[in-house]
């Protein structure tokens, strides 16, 4: 369930059923216009819908006007502690200002910023951080950190409403994945405003991506969250954008560019698949269309679970095969697999999204596949298929008369927010 309310950050709708927006934050000194604009263009190309820039100093606020004018995507000014910088960011034309009313110098100063934002029509992102909750919630934070975080966020929302300001989205940041999930679930039930999701200080590209995928993925799968940012310890902000897109693509919430599928490999692998996967992934970045490309480490399963892929390759020691939608297209030497795969993809687009089949090459490929396929081998894929079939059979055998809802052992428990 998306938030009820919608706001506009520049041209990007947030909430109210709009597609989940991808955000990131520049890592440059904002006042360094050339470096900041370089990074903004890079993240926009990687798929960022919105970019946030830190504004800790007067010179950063002074650079904002140029940044807003040159940026291909809406710009959010990120302000802490200094309410006059927030006023300057609004005057510079920032498409949104992020501030935590709790650290901007008291309700009065927060009120001045909110009144100015209202006058100019600038939306705000208001939020709370687990590390800086108001003093009166400290005891609650000790006993129940989730409730403390949600209470702080609700108090912030009430402050906005008292000032008759509704042009905002809310974020609650915590380094704890379970607390991020629990607090956003609770807050989504209590307020109608759009939610920005993130796991703060998530970590390196590896651990941070996983934490974010678990935390944000769980919430997004519940329908909670209108905009996301993946926080990674890297200077390359575009990496955050790529991870965000992978999460949205995995949940089928948005489409962008090709989807790469690759088997996990096992002892049957006979070629350097790591290198092939990396090369295919790199070359696919040049395509915008959401085609599905699959890489199988061997042909013992036939085309198996990659049958639906638009294009795919499977290799053996010296030879491999290119296929499309389950149909063998051609057999090629392993070292030419990647080049030939992309030649086929390019031919497909040149022909107006039509797979061009050469009957002789296809017959050779089918013969190669028949030689290499072994439908008795217990591969990981076949074991999974057998297990799934056995589970289906068990379920069918065990089908009991439907229980009355009230008699169900899980009565009253809620598994989703549908
Ligand atoms: S059996 Fe499956 S996992 Fe192993 S290499 Fe072949 S396709 Fe990959």
Low-confidence stretches: 408-418
Q: Quote the average pLDDT.
A: 90
- In CATH, the homologous superfamily of the largest domain goes by the name Dihydropteroate synthase-like
Q: Biggest β-sheet: count, sense, barrel?
A: 8 strands, parallel, barrel
Distance between the termini: 7 Å
What is the number of E strands? 15
CATH class of the largest domain: Alpha Beta
Kindly report the CATH topology of the largest domain: TIM Barrel
Helix % is: 40-55%
CATH architecture of the largest domain: Alpha-Beta Barrel
Small-molecule binders here are: iron/sulfur cluster
Strand order of the largest sheet: 3-4-5-6-7-8-9-10
Secondary-structure-derived class: alpha/beta
Share in β-strands: 15-25%
- Taken together, the total number of domains comes to 2
Number of helices: 13
**How would the global form be characterised?**
elongated
């Amino acid at each position: 369930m998306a938030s009820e309310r919608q706001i506009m950050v520049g041209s990007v709708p947030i909430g109210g059923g709009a597609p989940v927006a991808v955000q990131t934050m520049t890592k440059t000194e904002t006042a360094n216009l050339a470096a900041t604009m370089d990074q903004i263009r890079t993240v926009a190309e990687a798929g960022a819908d919105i970019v946030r820039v830190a504004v800790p100093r007067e010179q950063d606020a002074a650079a904002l006007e140029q940044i807003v004018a040159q940026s291909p995507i809406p710009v959010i000014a990120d302000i802490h502690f200094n309410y006059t910088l927030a006023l300057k960011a609004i005057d510079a034309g920032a498409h949104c200002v992020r501030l935590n009313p709790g650290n901007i110098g008291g309700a009065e100063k927060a009120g001045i910023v909110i009144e100015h934002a209202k006058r100019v029509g600038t939306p705000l992102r208001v939020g709370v951080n687990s590390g800086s909750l108001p003093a009166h919630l400290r005891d609650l934070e000790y006993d129940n950190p989730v409730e403390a975080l949600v209470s702080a966020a609700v108090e912030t929302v009430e402050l906005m409403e008292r000032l008759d300001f509704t042009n905002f989205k809310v974020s609650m940041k915590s380094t704890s994945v379970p607390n991020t999930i629990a607090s956003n679930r609770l807050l989504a039930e209590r307020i109608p405003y759009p939610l920005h999701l993130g796991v703060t200080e998530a970590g390196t590209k590896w651990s941070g991506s996983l934490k974010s995928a678990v935390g944000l993925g769980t919430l997004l799968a519940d329908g909670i969250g209108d905009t996301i940012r993946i926080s990674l310890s890297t200077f390359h902000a575009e990496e955050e954008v790529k991870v965000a897109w992978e999460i949205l693509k995995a949940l089928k919430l948005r489409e962008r560019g090709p989807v790469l599928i690759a088997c996990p490999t096992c002892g049957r692998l006979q070629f350097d698949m790591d290198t092939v996967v990396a090369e295919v992934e790199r070359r696919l970045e040049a395509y915008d269309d959401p085609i599905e490309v699959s890489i199988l480490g061997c042909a013992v399963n036939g085309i198996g679970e990659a049958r639906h892929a638009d294009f795919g390759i499977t290799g053996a020691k010296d030879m491999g095969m290119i296929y499309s939608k389950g149909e063998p297209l051609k057999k090629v030497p392993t070292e030419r697999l990647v080049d030939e795969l992309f030649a086929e993809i390019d031919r497909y687009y040149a022909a107006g999204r039509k797979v061009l089949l050469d009957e002789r090459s296809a017959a050779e490929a089918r013969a190669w596949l028949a030689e290499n396929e072994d439908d008795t081998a217990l591969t990981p894929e076949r074991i999974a298929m057998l297990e799934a079939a056995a589970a289906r059979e068990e379920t069918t055998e065990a089908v009991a008369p439907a229980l009355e809802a009230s008699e169900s052992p899980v009565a009253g428990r809620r598994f989703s927010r549908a």
